[in-house]
Amino acid sequence: MPKILPAYSFAFQPIINVVSGEIISFEALVRGEQNETAQSIFKQIAPADMHHFDELLRLNAIPLAAKLGIQCRLNLNLLPGSLAESDAAILSTLSVAKEHGIQAEFITLEITEQEIIHDFKRFIDAIDVARSCGMGFSIDDFGAGYAGLNMLAEFQPDTIKLDMSLVRDIETRGPRQAIVRGIARTCNDLGIDIIAEGVETVAEYWWFREEGIALFQGFLFAKPGFEHLPMAFYPKL
């Protein structure tokens, strides 16, 4: 890792079960100290250092979440290549979580679908080790990247988060609706929950609710915050 890193912190955004009315998890999202976007932070990291930086982010997000008193699950991002770079990429996360009183069962690792997994066996082996410790797994940005339905068959995460390109204005986009319905049927058969991520309008929300989706994340409910905020308003059933 380079000795000088960009200044950064984390904002936490809730994932909400609108049926039970509960926050089920907070996702830790890297931000600049002045709330700059994650993209602006990652642009300052050399490609060769990216996977080490990815691990460092998890190790720093956990103590902050513990300090803020987050009591539900914690979603942390994980680049698949980090598992190839370091056998300790997940074990270090488990170790820091234990140090700060967060059980493995309360950690969900979000695997981005926008990076190619070159060594799938090694990836699955590392996932199996983490699962044996109680960690949960989600595929982030599903529908935007490389793995698609094949990853569902081989990996079978606990949840998937639909990419915002599928979510945006879905109530008026027939092809997107057909794709999401197909994904929902597959996930239902595999016992995988769907999270509609990036929901910003009531119309988007109601389309997903009418399709039976219960888990949501997006500006309609709460923007990412730098403190442990209560659940914002969401449309009632």
Task: Describe what you observe in this structure.
This protein has 237 residues and is an alpha/beta fold. It has one domain (8-217): Alpha-Beta Barrel (TIM Barrel). It is built from nine helices and eight strands. It has helices at residues 38-42, 50-68, 81-85, 91-99, 120-132, 148-155, 164-167, 174-190, 202-210; strands at residues 8-17, 22-32, 73-78, 107-112, 136-142, 159-162, 193-197, 215-217. It has an eight-stranded mixed beta barrel. Strand 4, helix 5 (120-132) and strand 5 (136-142) form a beta-alpha-beta unit. Helix 2 packs parallel to helix 4 (91-99). Residues 228-237 have low confidence and may be disordered.
Q: What's this entry about, in short?
A:
With 237 residues, the protein is of the alpha/beta class.
Number of helices: 9
The level 1 CATH classification is Alpha Beta
Gyration radius, rounded: 17 Å
- The percent range for strand residues is 15-25%
Note the gap between the termini: 49 Å
Mean pLDDT: 87
Output the CATH homologous superfamily: EAL domain
Helix content: 25-40%
Helix-strand topology string: EEHHEHHEHEHEHHEHE
